Amino acid sequence: MSHTYGDEGSYTVTVVVADDDGGSDSATLTVTISNLDPVIDTLVAGDGNEGDALAYEAARGFTWDIRAVNAATGVDRQLTASFDAALAPDYHPDGKQILFTRIGLDGEASLHVYDLVSGAARRLSTEGVEARRGVWSPSGRHIAFESDAEVAI
Known about the structure:
mainly beta, four-stranded antiparallel beta sheet, 0% helix
């Protein structure tokens, strides 16, 4: 059973369940439907030219996604969509990739890169090692990030 609401608001929902032997039960609850626009939390743009896209975090329900908007055309597109939170986008200097932090349902933070050409995201950091808030070096060959891992120098 499913139902799609046509507009936001508060609705009273009554569910009735019956079995083949004539037994039944019902429950009533109030459902609040909200149709809120994404909220820009952080706006990060890499070096580039007029018309380049800007990457930002946007709230979607109880999680966060990375979105990109083309500054020249105003076309906005969602790049990540999962139950994990995607945060802290940083453009690669060539403008073809976005580095971001993904925080999983288990709370683990990991670094991922989204390829703007293929539309695919891949994990960069080692599983089980906290890694977050990555930034590309000016050459794009290195990444600096925060981690809870112990490092010996």
